[in-house]
TrEMBL record:
It comes from Shewanella aestuarii. SMART domains: Aamy (SM00642). Belongs to the glycosyl hydrolase 13 family. This is Alpha-glucosidase family protein. Gene3D superfamilies: Glycosidases (3.20.20.80), Golgi alpha-mannosidase II (2.60.40.1180), Oligo-1,6-glucosidase, Domain 2 (3.90.400.10). InterPro entries: GH, GH13_cat_dom, Glyco_hydro_b, O16G_dom_2. Pfam families: Alpha-amylase (PF00128). It comes from the Bacteria. Residues 14-403 form the Glycosyl hydrolase family 13 catalytic domain.
């Protein structure tokens, strides 16, 4: 199988194109900027990059509102730039995964412009249209994640349309066969261009309940979800009727049938449902659904060995032959060092978090800047760009703090990202951790990241072995990985206190601590683990 299964246990580096590198000094990153940084990305020893959307868009949700699925937004460059990007990435043996936002479009998309005109046009049922209730109010109680009612009035049709996110992101009607075919045609356009796969945005939102039943209320205390809490009324409902509808599996199978015509291409679904782990398992079962899926389970504030163990064990119990992808950070949540590390960018903590992510069973999405240990950037209300943050300030400050530009050069103007003020400010603490400040320090988090991934490539058991958790002190995440009779013991001290692990019952084959993380030590029958240390050993 070789090449075909690169993604099983592969490391996918997420590029947020607005913030990787600005090549034309307009303050926003672009495709030429990514091309200029491909050598850097290659030096990280990752397998692929996932690039967040760079398609034509009014940028109300920073590219997750697409107005033309087959064109590049001029802000990011041209199709020729994209072709160059694929060619160069492939020459460096880096796969290209692009984002596909299938569940909704921008309200500026030609499909919606036509659909909204009247009830008889050729796209009349490509979006989710519904009559008002007798009292003129919205068809049901569904809410939008980014605030308020999920329905917006369209005077021309005298109907409401559904939007699960912004009102400028109308939801497509996947119950309509012609629409689904048009969506698949857009996906095929990129397969023909030679991309290696797709990250499928908001895939659980594609279908809605055609009876438009009300969502039931969710009791206090259970109101948690993808990065939000009780501060957002969206959390007050079980989203049984506007999310994770049973028909989604059928669409996923249609999509997979198309993908299979382009050998090697893969799909990675973003899952956000009432039981995301179960949905990850369901959507990746067998050979005819998604290749892999990730959810928000490790993107929350919960950080403890018990929570991580419980999450992975729950998934493992149901995943069968499906395949998970883990992420501890991305463009939607607070930077992980801040979320899990009380805001301090302790290099040992950063190394341990990356090493832990790379050691779980599954593929990995690693967000740009995590190799540098970037913290959440403080953003003032006046500087906010994210409409989600603007709507929920100050209880929720939005997603700008994790989207600030990459610092390349400590002493350069705008940390080497651009020669002009960027779209979001670069904190001085980030400049201190710039790539060039870490490059020549063998102990830096950047070099630890590179070294760990190079070492991991030599450890097939870490790439694709089974996982089984082991009892340990509360602050230790302890597990075994096993492949074809080879067993590895893996320990991480998640706390800032020293702790130890009782090695009784194990027979050591070889200590494996040449991986770039702070390493624990075997003393007698005990492994001593300083704060944020880890320990790897081959065992019998
Ligand atoms: C996904 C994206 C997020 C976007 C939303 C709507 O969750 O990751 O950034 O705002 O979908 O498309």
């Amino acid at each position: 199988m070789g090449q075909v299964t690169w993604w099983r246990g592969g490391i996918i580096y997420q590029v947020y194109p607005r913030s990787l590198m600005d090549s034309n000094d307009d303050g926003v990153g672009d495709l030429q900027g990514i091309i200029a940084k491909l050598d850097y990305i290659s030096s990280l020893n990752v397998d692929a990059i996932w690039i967040s959307p760079f398609f034509k868009s009014p940028m109300k949700d920073f590219g997750y509102d697409i107005s033309d699925y087959r064109d590049i937004d001029p802000m990011f460059g041209t199709m020729a730039d994209f072709d160059e990007l694929i060619t160069k990435a492939h020459s460096l043996n880096i796969k290209i995964i692009i984002d596909q936002v299938l569940s909704h479009t921008s309200d500026q998309h030609a499909w919606f412009q036509e659909s909204r005109q009247n009830r008889t046009n050729s796209k009349a049922d490509w979006y989710v249209w519904a009559d008002p209730k007798d009292d003129g109010s919205a068809p049901n109680n569904w809410l939008a994640i980014f605030g308020g009612c999920a329905w917006e009035w369209e005077p021309r049709r005298q109907q409401y349309y559904l939007h699960n996110f912004l009102k400028s992101q109308p939801d497509l009607n996947f119950h309509c066969d012609d629409l689904r075919q048009a969506v698949l045609d857009n996906v095929e356009f990129w397969l023909k261009k030679g991309v290696d796969g797709f990250r499928l945005d908001a895939i659980t939102f594609c279908y809605h309940d055609e009876l438009l039943r009300d969502n039931p209320a969710k009791p206090k205390g259970q109101r948690q979800g993808r990065g939000f809490s009780e501060d957002n009324p969206y959390a007050y409902q079980y989203h049984y009727y506007n999310n994770t509808r049973p028909q989604t599996v059928g669409f996923i199978e249609e999509l997979r049938a198309l993908i299979n015509r382009y050998p090697g291409a893969v799909t990675l679904g973003e899952v956000s449902s009432e039981d995301s782990l179960a949905t990850m398992a369901e959507y990746t079962q067998g050979d005819d659904r998604l290749h892999m899926a990730y959810s928000f389970e490790l993107l929350t504030d919960d950080f403890s060995a018990a929570y991580i163990r419980q999450t992975v064990e729950e998934l493992e119990a149901s995943i069968g032959n499906g395949w998970p992808c883990w992420a501890i950070g991305n463009h939607d949540v607070q930077r992980v060092v801040t979320r899990w590390g009380k805001g301090e960018s302790n290099p040992d903590l950063v190394k341990m978090l990356n090493g832990m992510l790379f050691s779980l069973r599954g593929s990995v999405c690693s967000y740009q800047g995590e190799e540098l240990g970037l913290t959440e950037a403080p953003i003032e209300f006046e500087q906010l760009q994210d409409p989600f943050g603007i709507a929920f300030w100050p209880m929720f400050k939005g997603r700008d703090g994790c989207r600030t530009p990459m610092p390349w050069s400590k002493d350069a103007i705008q940390a080497g990202f651009s020669n002009v003020a960027p779209w979001l400010p670069i904190p001085s603490a980030h400049a201190e951790n710039a790539v060039d400040a870490q490059e020549h320090n063998a102990q830096s988090t950047l070099n630890s990241y590179r070294r760990f991934l190079a070492w991991r490539k030599q450890q097939p058991v870490l790439v694709s072995g089974d996982i089984r958790f082991v009892e340990a002190n509360v602050s230790i995440l302890a597990f075994e990985r096993e492949l074809a009779g080879n067993k590895m013991l893996v320990l991480f001290n998640l706390s800032e206190q020293s702790t130890s692990f009782d090695f009784d019952g194990y027979q050591l084959n070889a200590e494996l601590n040449e991986h770039g993380l702070l390493a624990g030590k075997l003393v007698g029958n005990t492994i001593e683990l300083p704060p944020f240390a880890s320990y790897f050993a081959n065992i019998k």
